[in-house]
Amino acid sequence: MEENIIQVENLSKSFDISSKKPGLKGTLKHFFKRETRSIEIIKNITFGIKKGEIVGFLGANGAGKTTILKILCGLIYPSQGKLSVTGNLPYKRRPNFLKNITLIMGQKQQLIWDLPPIESFYLNAAIYDIDKFEAKKRIKQLSDMLEIEKELYIPVRKLSLGQRMKSELLAALIHKPNILFLDEPTLGLDINAQRNLRKFLQIYNKETDATICLTSHYMKDITSLCKRVICIHEGCLTYDGKLEKLLKKISPVKDILFICKTDKDAKELSNSGFIIKNQNQKEITITIKKDSIKSTLKKILNKFEIEDLYINEPPVDEIIGNILVKEKV
Amino acid sequence: MKIRKYIKIYSLFLSTSIASELEYKTNVIIDFITAILSLVGSVFLLTIFFQNTDNIGGWNFEQALIIQGIYTILNGITNTWFNPNLTEIVKHIREGTLDFVLLKPLDSQFFISLNKLAPSGFLEIILGVVLLFYCIRINQININLSFLFLCITTLFCSIVILYSLWFLISTTTIWFVKTWNATEVLRSFLYIGRFPLNSFSFSLRIFFSIFVPIAFITTIPSEVFLGIAKPWEILFEVIVAGIFFTVSRRFWLFALKYYTSASS
Q1: What is the CA A198 to chain-centroid distance, rounded?
Q2: B20 interaction partners in chain A (CB closer than 8 Å)
Q3: Is the complex ipTM higher than 0.85?
Q4: Is A56:A219 a contact under the CB 8 Å cutoff?
Q5: Model pTM?
Q6: How many CB pairs under 8 A join A and B?
Q7: Are the C-beta atoms of residues A115 and B117 closer than 8 Å to each other?
Q8: CA-CA distance, B130 to B72, in Å (whole number)?
Q9: DSSP codes of every residue in B29-83
């Protein structure tokens, strides 16, 4: 059996957080006598990730997803638990470990603001011990994949958000890391830029067999990239498994839109005891359990005159949105 | 091998910083003019102090000018390296961009202390050196190898002390998040370095020698210039520089354990 490249056992992390009451009195009290309390952000989490997997971390804001990523890449010391990433203790931040990983944050940038991105790429190449010839080759290869050949020589401050994000990706991948930690990489990007970025990550994963750990609030990122998801709710792991299975488990129904031939059929269909989700004159949407689709369809098609029908899955955003606030999945 | 890597990276820091600064031509010109006016203003202030007296704390005007020269060099170094880098530490910690620094296979203290550079400070360094050469002429100082060695050693130690103090204060940002004021106080203390240590009262001399060794960092190199520095003073400065640098380094590595990164 293939060994896990990331192994986490009973991981916990607590932070000391101070709270402040509103008003001047609260401010003065907060200044002179700060009340701090310890909050457990991550609670006893265990999981393993294999080489080449793309895993999505799902959870509401403040659930602890980013903290997990930051612990995994060695930025934050864990309070408790066992941890191994590529056989290393991440928080020791040994050079060999750091050369194997990268962290990309959608809302933070490492490129030099006033200079073209190519300057930052060569600087990063030197930091990762990549010689100039090899760096040139990698920049060419990655800029081709990301379609940013022309933007390499334009100052970062003059690039669009999408072009900047692609440049950030290139800067973060120049050392060919085996593990990518992506914290909301598509944040603020338009639909085309999001799609291009996802396409790039899919190709990168396929070509290099890199492991990708991803957090995102754009469900399309998760559904198009991740076969496996880990759900976090208030610091606890609530689900770890296939996304498909999760969707089936959470949403065992399908919505079917029937377009009836006559108003009479529409009226009779709406009164025949099915769960009606929507009705608009001759168009009726009925929610049917997945395991009884065949028999129910047969029944309806035999009894009523149906002009056309469409079978829809409930929107993934809606399903996942619901599980983010659930304690147990 | 490691040293070669660091030299190569530093040369890249230099070229990218100079290129970044030169993107804004007017700003560079204004900085150059400010440096010249600042030195003229300081020398003018010194002439006012010496208008009614021949010496302050046992130093005459020509000798006090050496302190001004050393102060100008140190201020130039502050403006070239310390100011652009060490004040950024607070920003790195507040905004969480220290993450990128910590995840690089490179010494984090080296990266955050040297990755930027403001070329306008170079002019101050050059002006300071010119002023020192002028002082060597008017004070009729003989230049020989041991003189040069001691001057460079004490000046280097002064730079190390100043850097370590600034870095120590900036490191506390990991716990206190905002420490702009503390670094501003340090810059204000640096102005004190324009005057001889002997011009202060005994208690202030102790304070500015041991607790905040600011006056110390200009006075001892100036005494070396004049050939009146006592050997124990030079040794003391070397020891203080070593202690301050070691403490600042250890404190940084210790503080990183408490770094929690900014929220996303």
Answers
A1: 11
A2: 112-115
A3: no
A4: no
A5: 0.81
A6: 77
A7: no
A8: 10
A9: HHHHHHHHHHHHHHHHHHHHHTSS-SEETTEEHHHHHHHHHHHHHHHHHIIIIIH
DSSP string computed for A112-149: -TTS-HHHHHHHHHHHTT--HHHHHHHHHHHHHHHT-T
Of B5, B104, B261, the CB nearest to A98: B104
The CA distance from A41 to the nearest CA of chain B, in Å, is 12
Find all residues with CB under 8 Å of A64, minimum gap 6, and list them. A13, A41, A42, A232, A234, A235
Half-sphere exposure of A87 (CA within 13 A, CB side): 2
3-state secondary structure of A231: strand
- Separation in Å, CA of B34 to nearest CA in chain A: 23
Task: Give the model confidence (pLDDT) of B237-264 as tens digits.
Answer: 899 999 999 999 999 999 988 887 765 5
Alpha-carbon distances, residue A182 vs A221, A297, B23 (angstroms)? 11, 43, 32
In chain A, the residue whose alpha carbon lies closest to the alpha carbon of B99 is A75
Q: Cβ distance A73 to A211 under 8 Å?
A: no
Selection from B85, B257, B71, B80 nearest residue B167 by Cα:
B85
Contact A226, A52 (CB under 8 A): no
B263 is written with which tokens? 């929220």
Residues of chain B found within 8 Å of residue A126, distances taken between Cβ atoms: 5, 8-9, 12
- Residue B251, CB half-sphere, CA atoms under 13 Å: how many? 18
Q: How close, in Å, is residue B17 to chain A by CA atoms?
A: 9
For A162-190, b where at least 16 C-beta lie within 10 A, e where not — what string?
bbbbbbbbbbbbbbebbbbbbbbbbbebe
pLDDT tens profile A6-50: 999 999 998 877 777 777 777 777 767 777 778 888 999 999 999
DSSP letter at A88 equals B
Helices B120-138 and B61-77: crossing angle, nearest 10°? Answer: 160
Check A123 against B12: CB less than 8 A apart: yes
